[in-house]
Structure formats: C-alpha cells, structure tokens
Amino acid sequence: MRYAHEVDKVRTAERALMARLPDGTLMSRAAAGLASVCARILRGGRPHAEPGLGVYGARVVLLVGGGDNGGDALYAGAGLARRGAGVTAVLAGTKSHEGGLADLRAAGGRVLPVAEEERVATAIDRADLIIDGMLGIGGRGGLREPYAGLARRAADSPAIVVACDLPSGVDASSGQVAGAAVRADVTVTFGTYKPGLLVDPGAEHAGVVELVDIGLGPYLPDPDVCAPLAEDVAVRLPRPTSESNKYRRGVVGVLAGSETFTGAAVLAVGGAVRGGAGMVRFASSEHPVELVRQRWPESVTTVIGDSLDGIGRVQAWVAGPGLGTDERAEALLAQVLATDLPVLVDADGLTVLARRRDLLWRDAPTVLTPHAGELARLLGTDAGEIEARRLEHVRRAAEELTATVLLKGSTTLIAEADRPVRVNPTGTPWLATAGSGDVLSGLTGALLAGGVPAIDAAATGAYLHGLAARLSADPYGDGAAPISAYDVLDALPEAFRTLAG
Ligand SMILES: NC(=O)C1=CN([C@@H]2O[C@H](COP(=O)(O)OP(=O)(O)OC[C@H]3O[C@@H](n4cnc5c(N)ncnc54)[C@H](O)[C@@H]3O)[C@@H](O)[C@H]2O)[C@@H](O)CC1
Ligand SMILES: Nc1ncnc2c1ncn2[C@@H]1O[C@H](COP(=O)(O)OP(=O)(O)O)[C@@H](O)[C@H]1O
Ligand SMILES: [K+]
C-alpha cells in the first residue's frame, strides 16, 4: 500500500522527528535522496530508462523558491555539483535558504537571480535536468510570478523535470491545480506520499513518484489516502476451493437494461460472469433478456414487469445500467434497496437516486459508482466542480449518502466514511469508452456477492477493470490502441491471472 498524508499531519510528524535530531538533519536526508534519484536518472537508470549522459558534465538547473523546498533543491544541487554536474540555481524567491546557497556555492555551483531573464531562459532551455524546488507543502493556490513563468519555460525545455517533494502549483493535500503548475517527469517526495501526488489533476503533474525515507514513519498517524499495490489487491481476491459450489461462490442479481437500452445489460452481466460469480440472475424486460440469454447462456434470466417477485435468491444486487429513469425503474430500484443485501447502484440507478435519496437509508452495504456528472446530480453541484476537487467530493458523497462511493475518472477514487480514500492505480485513458462502466459494475457486484466487503470489492473491481483495460489496450507495453468495453470484458480473465500469479 502507498500511504499519503495531508500537510498538517506531515508538519506535525516532521516537528516531532526534528525535535529528536540535530538541526538540518531532515533537510540533508531529503536533499541526499533527491540528489541520488537525479544522479540515477542522469545515468539512464529507472524511472528514465533512456541511455544516460552521466552526472559528470550534465547541465542541471535548480528552480529555487524562498522556502525549505528551495533549500532541499540547493543542497541536492550542491551534491550533484560535487559529482561533476554543471549546476545553475535560479533564485526566484524573495529570499533563499542561506545554508543551501552557501553549500551550492562551495560546491562550485552558479547562481542566477530570476531577474536576469535572458540568462535564466538560456539556462533552462539548455538544461539536461531541471529540479523544481519552488514550492513544496507550503504552496497555496496557483503559482504566482515569477514562479509561473519559470514553470512555463521548464515545460518547453527538453530537459527531464524532477519535482522536489511535489510539483510546484499542485495542492499537496487535495491534488487541486488552481492555475499554472509544474509538470514533472519524476517527483521525489519525502517521508510519505502526499494525497495530491496520487489524485488527479495533481497526480498527472507528478509523473513517476519516488518516495525517499527520511525517518518520518513512526511519527505519522493513520493515512488520509492510500493506493493499493498489486499484492494488497491480490490477497482480497475470492478464490474457489474444494468446498465451493455455485451458491457459495455468490449469486449476483443484475437489474439492468430496458427496451431502449440493451447493451448496458449485456455488459454488466458479462462483468458479473467474468468477475467470478457462481451464478448471475438477470432480471429485465423482454428485449434485453433475449439478448443476454443469447450472449450469456450461463446466466439465469427472468422477464419482469414492475416487481422482482420470483427472481430467486441472490447474495448481492447490481442495479441501474440501462434501466431507464421512469417510475418503473424507480419502483424496481426501491425493491432492490429494500433488501438486506449489498447493492451496487450505477448509471440510470444513480439518476433515480438523485431524486430519491431516501432510498439510501438502509443498513446493508450500498456501493455507488458515479462518474463526475452522476455525482454532480447526486450532490447538487456541477461536474467541473467535482473534477477540480475530486477528493473532497468523493468524501462528502460517502458521508452524505451513507454509502461506499467509487468516483470514476482518470484516477478512480473510492471513499467510505471514516476510512482513508483509496486511489486506484491501474487504468488507461483508453478506458474512457461507452459501456466500460457497465463492465465495472457487474464485476464489482460479483465480488460483493462473493462476500468481499464493500470498500474492498470496489477497490478490487476498479483495480481489475483498469488492469484488464491496460492489458487489452497495450498488451506488449509498446503502444496502445483503442479498445471497446467488450475488449475489457475479454481481458478480465488475464487480469485475474496477472494479479493472482
Ligand atoms: N519541515 C521539514 O522538516 C522538512 C521540510 N522539507 C521541505 O520543506 C518544504 C516545505 O517548506 P516550506 O514550509 O518552507 O514551504 P515551501 O518551500 O513549500 O514554500 C513556502 C513559501 O512559498 C510562498 N508561496 C506559497 N504559495 C505560493 C504561490 N502559489 N506562489 C508563489 N509563492 C507561494 C509562501 O509565501 C512561502 O514563503 C517541503 O515541501 C520539503 O521540500 C524537507 O527538507 C524535509 C524536511
Ligand atoms: N481520462 C480517463 N483516464 C482513465 N480512465 C478513465 C478516464 N475517463 C474515464 N475513465 C474510466 O472509464 C470508465 C467509464 O465509465 P462510465 O463513465 O461509467 O462510462 P459508461 O457509462 O459509458 O460505461 C470508468 O471506469 C472510468 O474510470
Ligand atoms: K517543488
């Protein structure tokens, strides 16, 4: 698991640790870690695997702000200068870290005030590697000048950009980017991950994130956000044993599709079948039932009117994809939510819930899987607001709607009240294709029916779904192609095997 802490918690932990150490110890640990990652990158090591030019003679530019983030960059630059790099520090703050500046000078580094615009521009344009040390966890809001101009210039330079602690302009606690911000190829972060490095839009600005241990671990409280690694997800996968039969593995009820929308039902049932359900019971009107029966003969289908009576026993429900939003859909959704079973609500089901939030007052687990537009309807705001502050909104939704909320998008977030928000690390932008969300709901429903707790089912579903999409869009890791929701379904067995193996 990668754990992330908000700024106030990082500061409290840093204070506790600093009180036990000689002055400057933490900064020198941070700077040493940063310098060694930069040296590795210059030599062509991971996470930049291209043949490197080496540290000796490399042109390194430090963008130095007025706070401790600038101090880290100056000390790291001094370290690189001692290994033979040509280091230029661009001083952009109203002041600069004195110790760091003295160390850089002593190591033979060059110093340029930001006001020397032409020389600064030339240095940035010719750099092999740029260290962004303008703002760290002390940053607030979008970058102001002259930082914003330096960030733009760095973006146009062919240099590799390495952010110190976090890309300047990214809000450390939320991932919000309110204006200009640095786009890094690599971010070297200290002590713990910051939520803004894992959650978009910040995550996208951070590139590959490397954590440097500065000894903060014992002083950190519970995390605010975490991103599971493959092994964290693998242990939660339900695996059939010799004791298993189709009922014990979990029966999923899928309430989806309508005379107008049939594809969503076929995909959601497919997600449930490929998600490892022992059995899928599909309830809908005539046309979708006919199509599901043809494509998934292994499912048990029932044509229903406006009642679910006679469907048979299930252990969890998936309700909503293609269901429509009329009174019948509302009545059926109400019946599903009146059960004492785990229920996942998606798509049209969420639109119905936006006008019938009272249906969420239940004791059994409820998982909601909105995209930003659907969540906006549920919370009475607009999608742009949700996208800009995804973390805040997914938390608010989990609390107000008393549900496990999986917010889809470029980084999928999963929230449940009083728990760290989980960030899904898999996926690809190629997944943004019609119908892929229906596959996710079926798949997650199968995990719920298999007895996986709601937050783990949602996190495992999102992980497998994103992995399947990646395996299908870019099977050899050498170039991606467009995929359909069906391709994601077809890649699910391989995603399971990859994860379990
Ligand atoms: N406190 C510690 O123990 C450690 C701190 N470290 C470093 O210290 C950093 C935090 O240092 P600071 O607290 O000095 O804060 P920063 O260096 O992040 O920046 C603070 C300064 O930036 C200005 N500023 C804020 N937002 C701005 C904006 N949008 N545009 C322009 N200027 C803006 C503020 O006025 C303030 O002067 C960490 O990110 C990390 O890099 C590391 O050395 C590890 C140890
Ligand atoms: N920019 C993106 N990068 C990566 N994944 C994305 C992006 N945009 C959307 N997705 C993913 O694509 C899927 C789309 O689901 P959804 O919006 O429900 O579509 P549909 O309703 O057509 O099935 C979700 O899993 C979502 O997380
Ligand atoms: K920075």
UniProtKB/TrEMBL annotation:
(6S)-NADPHX binds at residues 68-72, 136-142, 147, 165, 264, 322, 371, 438. Its EC number is 4.2.1.136, 5.1.99.6. Binds 1 potassium ion per subunit. Pfam families: Carb_kinase, YjeF_N. K(+) binds at residues 69, 132, 168. Gene3D superfamilies: 3.40.1190.20, YjeF N-terminal domain (3.40.50.10260). Homotetramer. In the N-terminal section; belongs to the NnrE/AIBP family. In the C-terminal section; belongs to the NnrD/CARKD family. This is Bifunctional NAD(P)H-hydrate repair enzyme. It comes from Actinoallomurus spadix.
